[in-house]
Amino acid sequence: MTEQEIIKMTNEVFIDSFEIDPAKLLPQANIFNDLGLDSLDVVDLVVALQKKFSVTIRDDERVRTIRTLGDLQQFILTIKKEIGK
Amino acid sequence: MRILSIAFLNFIFYSFLIIFSLIAFVNLGSLIILLALFLPQRKVYKFLRQAIRWYGGVIIRILAFPLIRLDYKNYGTNDPPTPYIFVCNHRSACDPFLMAVFPYEIVQVVNIWPFRLPALGIIAKIAGYLSVREIPYTEFAAKTRKLITKGVSLAAFPEGTRSRDKSIGQFHSAIFRTALETHAAIVPVCITGNENTPPIGSPFLRPGLIKIHRLPALTWEEYRTFSPFKLKNYVRGIIAQEVLAMDKIK
Fold this sequence. Notes:
Oligomer: heterodimer
Shape of chain A: globular
Helix content of chain B: 40-55%
Low-confidence stretches of chain B: none
């Protein structure tokens, strides 16, 4: 899976699960302040991402450090690379 | 001269507030303790929440006048029966007192600070008010579900903290998840003119007209297909639109 595919699929989660305007899905967009998710929405986000990418990230401590959409895309990319090894 | 008259009105307000609060706490407190000996717990809670409403009503309608005037408009005359979930924008520390305009048994969902107020914080805790940031979501959900089932309405300020300007902050979804679970009608409440009652960093009230618009309720049939995220942003949009219109009219 390429980086571009991961970015596209991550954005699809925000569009499908949260109906967020694609124009707002910029790498620097803060998930909380700019996209409007809260701690409970993040739980829904994690579930949707797990389903979309067939990964388990719920208990991954690195999730807590994610602030922007770009951080999230990089995190998914890292997870996919780790699985592929 | 104007500053002196505002200072004088604040002095009068706070003096009467302290005297009234002492009288109210002693008398209503004694009455509630007495009722608790003879009446079922549910009736005592109902009386206590009603007493809080009276207390808040006297403060905002009588003691704060003429410093603060209230303009309450109810556009929800065709709303379904209670319980409701009142969702309000949040600009002032006085907002919890403004909930006294609603003639229902209400439990407020508050941030941490109201629980730390002397005397009032203890009463809020006894009345079952919920400090949303101090309890896990599962406990919050269980408690709000129980209250709604008993016919108690909820009032929440989903921005969490008061806005520092006239913009409306992002909403937290907890109260909207309760709505989706319990099917309670959501009542958007728009409050303006309260930015300086008191301004951030000052205890002194500035003269002003506080407008409260209760908008028509959003029923479960209308929002049942929404996700919590969509619902919170939908209600935020309704409130933002009305608040913008209210701010434009002086």
